[in-house]
Write a structure and sequence with these properties.
This protein is of the alpha+beta class. The protein has three helices and six strands. It has one domain: Alpha-Beta Plaits (2-Layer Sandwich). Helix content is 27%, strand content 29%. The strands form two sheets. Strands 4-5-3-6 form a four-stranded antiparallel beta sheet. Helix 1 packs antiparallel against helix 3. It is flat, with a radius of gyration of 18 Å.
């Protein structure tokens, strides 16, 4: 794994393929702050989107827990997030806009896709 340029995998034909990194942040927002949080998140979104190595992001709202959100952000490399964003002036503004909404402070982890062989669809049972 080359963490400076991202994660590279070799496919079954021997070709190199770059793998994106998915940042997953579980965000628990203080009770009664959902609307203000969503407005602040919309305001903060251009900050993350301007960072080199950023690919995309989305905010999802939990169905079972109305105070919970999940941030899914794709990065070209782990360092694009952990260094490029978190050590930037944009991150300081992101913190100012969003961090006061969280209780507890979010858990943030990074993932890469697992490549599985294709599977055939299950046959439908006879009617």
């Amino acid at each position: 794994m080359n963490t400076c340029t991202g994660i590279v995998v070799i496919d079954e034909l021997g070709s190199e393929e770059a793998v994106m990194v998915l940042e997953v942040a579980i965000l628990d927002v203080k009770t009664g702050q959902n609307e203000a949080f969503e407005a602040a998140f919309q305001q903060a979104s251009p900050l993350i989107a301007s960072i080199p190595g950023y690919v995309s992001h989305e905010l999802q709202h939990c169905v079972e827990n109305p105070q919970r959100y999940v941030l899914l952000a794709y990065w070209q490399t782990l360092e694009a997030h952990t260094i490029g964003f978190r050590q930037s002036a944009h991150y300081q503004e992101w913190k100012r806009l969003l961090h006061h909404f969280y209780d507890p402070f979010p858990t943030v982890e990074h993932y890469v896709a697992v490549t599985l062989p294709p599977t055939a669809p299950s046959p439908l049972p006879n009617a």
